[in-house]
Amino acid sequence: MCGIVAFCGVKNAITPLLTGLARLEYRGYDSAGLAVIDPQAKQLRTIQRVRQEGRGMVEVLREAAAEAGLGDDSQGITCGIGHTRWATHGAPSVANAHPHCDCQGRIAVAHNGIIENHGRLREQLTAEGHTFHSQTDSEVVSHLVEKHYALQNGDLAAAVRAAVAELSGSFALAILHRDYPEALVVTRNDSPLVIGSCATGAIAASDVPALIEYTRDVCYLDDRDIAILHANGSVEYFDPAGEPYTPNTYHIDWNIKEAEKGGYPDFMLKEINEQPRVVRDVLKGRLNTQAKTLELPELAMTPDELAAIDRVYIVACGTSYHAGLIGKDLIESWARIPVEVRVASEFRYANPIISSNTLVIAITQSGETADTLEAVRLARRAGAHVVAITNVIGSRITTEAQTTIYIKANIEISVAATKTFLAQLCLLALLALFLSQERGLVNETQIVTAFEALQRLPQQIEAVLADTTSIDAAAEVCADATTVLFIGRGVGATTCYEGALKLKEISYIHAEAIAAGEIKHGTLALIDPIVATPVVAVAVASATHDKMLANIEEVKARGARVIALATEGDERVGELADIVIYLPPTYEQLSPVLASVALQLLAHRAAVLLGRDIDKPRNLAKSVTVE
Ligand code: M6R
């Protein structure tokens, strides 16, 4: 989704704006722009704008800005806003790129989100004499602020407040006015915005990486609140009624190195390789070795509440939804509570059966996914206890759910979720084990044994990462194919859903995952002996292993080329498959952790062979803040 950076300070604003935009590139974008006030030009103090269409545009923007006299060394320019656009309304073009100005070029606005009532507002403002220059929904905001600025006698904050009251939809907005060279106004509704102060000024952005170089202490706005960023670094916060307040401050302890490639060719490969560390961090401090009990204090539920849970819903989107599918198996196997996993965009429009004994687990790495947030609101209204599992401190979901458990994976830059997915899986395993403990279904020895299996995972992941010979060979097969099928049973099948998604999203090869027992009910027709359609079979040690072998035979007999994931020492799979990727042994319920690492590497390698843009796949965005 779009990215916003706003800086108001006493030193050059161009550097924080461009650096911030570069750090938001991971969100996916198709054009970029910035707008600044040049206070040197006193009489004709106008807003200067530079906008560029295309990807990789932040660098081009830097050059264009320098040509326009807005170089990194522009010491006189201390206040500005920047934007990376992910088109929703209007094609990617310079005219549609942000910031958007009002009729007189005195106001500039950068927007992330969707203004749902833009059509009506546009008609109304046009009838009132405003002229529009883009096809975007966003441009209505600059004209609306222009209108209210006149009505509010030049009070920018009041004008923004009045404009916001007329907007419906989701928005994070940064607003610049040429008559306010030492202040900026920002606001938001259902779109992320983070604010901080530093020695040289105040800064706001769509996500933490854009400002982490300047500050680690950040604040978040509630819906429709307004903040004024002052050049001296102070920030004033107001609720929608205009009442000032002091927000909570959150300390971000992410390492800046996490936002850099650190010698890897892309962020995805770096993040895949970080997974052993991430899993160790998820497990850290969770086992009380004296009492031999698991600890999950963030769940914040009393023993009675835990005992009363009679149904669990897991709601999530995309990769987080796949983590939920695996979580279902873990919770049902270990804690014996029925679990339904629902895609958040469906759940929010369904009529789910919820009572006060329902536990809803919302999984979202970004904490900002619009559909997941709405599903949480629905669940809370219906009386469920809602726990959020997220990676982003202070993100929107943390204010919507009753309790939050952080996966502590540190920032994930690549659009393709990898380390956050693994962290989600491990946290769900802990949660399942904890629920089982609290409901008296496991004894101390079983808890310690299961926890030890979890503790072995980081080393086992390292082993998968260390030898990629078979994975590389499998990637060559996939890179040549137009379709790849993924088959598995039980958690093997759910592992396949994620494996297929990873391959699709970064290599653009069509992939389909299916429960292996289902293949003969239709999908088998896709296996073409002429091209030897690749079939990735997750056939690790499991209760249904023999059945998986039969499924492998079935697809082989139709001419498929089989790439199997098997447990070390499994010679039977070795005899059947064309390529075998061996994985260390673990509990069946934990096998998705290891198999997913292999499938991430497979997708990555295939995408590299095809020359894809690994970290920024076409049409996709890192956080999906619109419905
Ligand atoms: O931030 P979330 O976990 O809520 O994001 C949900 C999906 O958009 C996300 O998991 C997406 O499917 C992945 N980036 C794909 O790798």
Write down how many β-strands occur, each being a DSSP E stretch of 2 or more residues.
27
Alpha-beta classification:
alpha/beta
What is the molecular shape?
Answer: globular
Helix content: 25-40%
**Poorly predicted runs of 5 or more residues:** none
Distinct ligand kinds: 5-amino-5-deoxy-1-O-phosphono-D-mannitol
Strand order of the largest sheet: 3-2-4-1-10-9-11-15
- The number of helical segments is 19
- Overall pLDDT score: 92
Measured distance between first and last alpha carbons? 11 Å
Instruction: Using the CA coordinates, give the radius of gyration.
Output: 26 Å
Major sheet: 8 strands, antiparallel
Strand content: 15-25%
Summarize the structure.
The chain has 627 residues and is an alpha/beta fold. The protein is built from 19 helices and 27 strands.
Write the layout of secondary structure elements.
Elements lengths: L2 E7 L4 H11 L6 E7 L9 E7 L3 H11 L11 E7 L14 E2 L5 E9 L2 H10 L11 H13 L4 H11 L2 E9 L5 E7 L4 E5 L2 E5 L11 E4 L5 E5 L4 E4 L5 E2 L4 E2 L15 H7 L1 H9 L3 E2 L4 E2 L8 H6 L2 E6 L1 H18 L3 E5 H4 L10 E7 L5 H12 L3 E6 L5 H5 L2 E4 L12 H20 L5 H23 L2 H11 L3 E6 L2 H17 L2 E6 L18 E5 L6 H13 L3 E7 L3 H6 L2 E5 L7 H19 L18
Parallel strand pairs: 18-19, 18-20, 20-21, 21-22, 23-24, 23-25, 25-26, 26-27
Antiparallel strand pairs: 1-4, 1-10, 2-3, 2-4, 5-6, 6-7, 7-8, 8-12, 9-10, 9-11, 11-15, 12-13, 13-14, 16-17
Helix pairs in contact: 4-5, 7-13, 7-14, 9-13, 9-16, 13-14, 14-19, 15-19, 16-19
The structure holds 5-amino-5-deoxy-1-O-phosphono-D-mannitol.
